[in-house]
Amino acid sequence: MMARTARCTCGQLSITVEGEPLRVAVCHCLACQSRTGSVFATLASFPVPYQVTGRATEYVRTGDHGTRFVFRFCPVCGTNLYDTEEGVDDVVSVSVGAFGDPSFPAPQVSVYDCRRHPWVTLPPGVRVFDRDPPG
Fold this sequence. Notes:
Blueprint: E1 3-7, E2 14-18, E3 23-27, H1 30-36, E4 41-47, E5 51-53, E6 57-62, E7 68-73, E8 80-85, E9 91-95, E10 109-111, E11 127-128
Parallel strand pairs: 3-10, 10-11
Antiparallel strand pairs: 1-2, 2-5, 3-4, 4-9, 6-7, 7-8, 8-9
Keywords: Lyase, Metal-binding, Zinc
Family: Belongs to the Gfa family.
Domain CENP-V/GFA: 4-113
């Protein structure tokens, strides 16, 4: 099985996952725009197990449906590297850009399309949701 490693900008924090992503998604919500400093976040979900090396700072945010997400940042360079959903112990989501792999699979899902900047074009076949679908 193929292993992939994503790293923060300074290299202090990394996460290694195995296999192909379960899902690759982009989120255009204002919280993700603020969190990433970009106009959307791109996350790939992977099954456990995963291995983290280095120290991380945590930030917990509650989503629209009451779900609590725990975001992990590098305390040195500030890179938001990965997150988990409280109560979901079998999946981790990793920031796609941190893999440094231009051949990484394209997103299949786009959420909060109501907040998507009009000049952002999605790849063909992406399933689009106006907001975050429950569940």
